[in-house]
Amino acid sequence: MTKLNWGIVSAGRIAALFCQDLVFSANSNLYAVAARKQADADKFAEQYNVDKAYQGYQTLFDDPDVDIVYIATPHNFHFQQVHDALMAGKHVLCEKPMTVTVDECHILTTLAKSKGLLLMEAMWTYFLPAMQQAKIWLDDGRIGQLKHVKVDFGYPVPFVANGREYNPQLAGGCLLDMGIYPLAIADYFLKSDINNLYVQAHVCETGVEDDVIIICKSDDVMVSLATSFQCRLSNNAYLIGDKGYIVIPDAFRASECHMYQLDELVDSFTDNRQSMGYHFEADEACRLIQQDEIESRVVSHKHSVLFQSQLARVKAFI
């Protein structure tokens, strides 16, 4: 099967993590990288053995040998870059959140469909084997009727007023940056959208939120979510049923999950992978393109629109 040539938009930290894992994707070739400065692109290309290094993203989009683009720039740049990549005829895997509004998300998904191109949000957590195993246990009724879902994700981020995380002009705030993980992980296990939201947040001096707690419901399931730039949270996910519970340590990058009945450990799973796990989403993108499919069933356009809707509803309380 022919390998697909990836073009990487950004030479930053997240792009580096993705490229480190791309070597584990059998159908992927790390072909090109683009950055705002040529020196940054050249350095990245040398470090990760990338064939082409470009200054400016449009140059990468215009390269006829690029099959799929991975976008890892700050959130507020995603809309224009995804748009430009699609207009250039490229398939796109875009880091989460794919956009910063519901309307932007609708525009991009509509454009991708009209062009017959793959557009997928890079919700890599959905493709991790431990996450999928936990869902199998839940769907098989191993913990009985689901009653509670608890997920949090937070790390201390030093305050820098003009930094990406805290600058409102760069779509700063922990909700978009980290909060999408608890929302998305919860939705992976729930059967319907969340409602009856109760939100508490701390807003820092730049006007963006740096700590958020969300209490809500999904049908009869109680949902507790949290995200923070102030401190490291447990970063675990708990699925609690009337016959037992499942814990997924470090759920956003899950490599294991464990199932309990009361206090007794009854089953465990560990994937023993050598990678961070980003290659699983790359494999999915390659598979879809090679099978002439333009939308993932795992992270569909509907999922991306839902994430944006949930973020907007939570944001309205802050």
Automatic annotation (TrEMBL):
Lineage, top-rank taxon, reads: Bacteria
Give every Gfo/Idh/MocA-like oxidoreductase N-terminal domain span. Answer: 4-121
Which Pfam families does its entry note?
Answer: GFO_IDH_MocA, GFO_IDH_MocA_C3
- Keyword rRNA processing recorded: no
A GO molecular-function descriptor? oxidoreductase activity
Q: Which Gene3D superfamilies would you find in this protein's record? A: Dihydrodipicolinate Reductase, domain 2, NAD(P)-binding Rossmann-like Domain
Residue ranges annotated for the GFO/IDH/MocA-like oxidoreductase domain, each copy included: 131-246
Q: Does the keyword Signal apply?
A: yes
Q: What is this protein called?
A: Gfo/Idh/MocA family oxidoreductase
Which keywords does UniProt give here?
Oxidoreductase, Signal
Q: Would you identify the family this protein belongs to, as annotated? A: Belongs to the Gfo/Idh/MocA family.
